[in-house]
Amino acid sequence: MVDTPKALESAPLAYENPAFLNSPDGRMLRIMAEYQEPMARFRRERIQDTVVFFGSARFRALDVARSQFELLENTGSLKAAPKEEQPLNIEEVQASEVTGQKLLRAGAAIEMAAYYEDARKLAFMISSWAKTLPGTRNRFVITSGGGPGIMEAANRGAYEAGAKTIGLNIKLPFEQQPNPYITPSLNFDFHYFFMRKYWLVYLAKALVVFPGGFGTLDEMFEVLTLVQTQKLAKKISVVIYGSSYWKSVINLDILAEKGAIAVSDLNLFHYADAPEDAFEILKKGLTENHLESEFEQQQRARQQAMDVTEPVPSAEELLGPDLSRTR
Questions:
Q1: How many CB atoms neighbour CB 324 within 10 A?
Q2: With pLDDT > 70 as the criterion, what percentage of the chain qualifies?
Q3: Which of 73, 83, 93, 239 is deepest in the core (most CB within 10 A)?
Q4: pLDDT one-digit tens code per residue, 209-264
Q5: In the chain, what is the straight-line distance between the N-terminal and C-terminal CA atoms, in Å?
Q6: What does the domain layout of the chain look like in residue ranges?
Q7: Are 119 and 144 a contacting pair, CB within 8 Å?
Q8: Pairing relation of β-strands 68-71 and 59-63?
Q9: Secondary structure (DSSP) of 226-281
Q10: Residue burial 198-232, b: 16+ Cβ < 10 Å; e: rest
């Protein structure tokens, strides 16, 4: 006679099974979650569109009064770079322990601190202006990659203007954390770089590119390529901030001279060297391309004439067609 087996415990629900969700078989669900969960939060927080800031995450000002700056070990990390890579500090000046390389790095640290303050001021100006715009949704919300450096400066400027501000962080294989100026309900952490990039672009109506490294270059050229190839079903204003830095790093004019890009592609962006100039470029583009666009006029008319029996419009209808269909 075969013994009766013991009663089994209930099997875990698929969406509560971490072994499955974190396995290769659950990858599609993880990708979908990084699309749907941010969308739900953006709708709940009534975010209509954004202005995205890109820039270096490696420099941070520790104490301007002491003229000390610290270089981080990696993009967005909490750990400092090795001592020999750090810029000049006040103790070394007092001890006369100054080398040429440290003087160069000190100059770079001071320059990046100036860019930090410019990003902070520009984000404050945009957020203050956006708060005066009519409507029930948040317009042109300052968005960054959520880390330190220029990203922190952008979120900080918006925070100081009393506006909501978004941080789209990314899980990296070293210790990190979001900067403290992000609106808590709009603090995101992504596993997949491509989903993070999607959300950086999807709601963006303008892009400001401050001096940075590999990540900044990657993000800038990805957006410019989308604009150049007409994959965005919207007009996006691109400001490259710090012309002396960028023109020493890359020569975009050469690309046009050699025929690698069209001469007209140089009109896809504007250079700016002062927060006030950048703000005027962005304000003009955002007003002409979006606030006064035919699409927004139709949306305002529809909302004013909407009958309570009509179906609630979808997120895409409310936010507008940001990405065009694949051709």
A1: 13
A2: 76
A3: 239
A4: 999 999 999 999 999 999 999 888 889 999 999 999 999 999 999 999 999 999 99
A5: 68
A6: 46-62+115-305
A7: no
A8: antiparallel
A9: HHHTT-BSS--EEEEE-HHHHHHH--HHHHHHTTSS-GGGGGG-EEESSHHHHHHH
A10: bbbbbbbbbbbbbbbeebbeebbeebbeebeeeeb
Grouping H, G, I as helix, E, B as strand and the rest as coil, residue 76 is: coil
CA distance 253 to 259: 10
Interhelix angle 193-202/27-44, rounded to 10 degrees, is 30
Q: For residue 126, how far is the Cα from the chain centroid?
A: 15
List the alpha helices (DSSP H) in the chain. 18-21, 27-44, 90-94, 100-130, 150-160, 193-202, 214-228, 243-249, 252-257, 275-286, 294-305, 315-319
- H/E run at residue 163: none
Please state the φ and ψ torsions of residue 176, each to the nearest 5 degrees. -160, 170
Which burial class, exposed, middle or buried, applies to 327 when counting CB atoms under 10 A from its CB (0-12, 13-18, 19+)? exposed
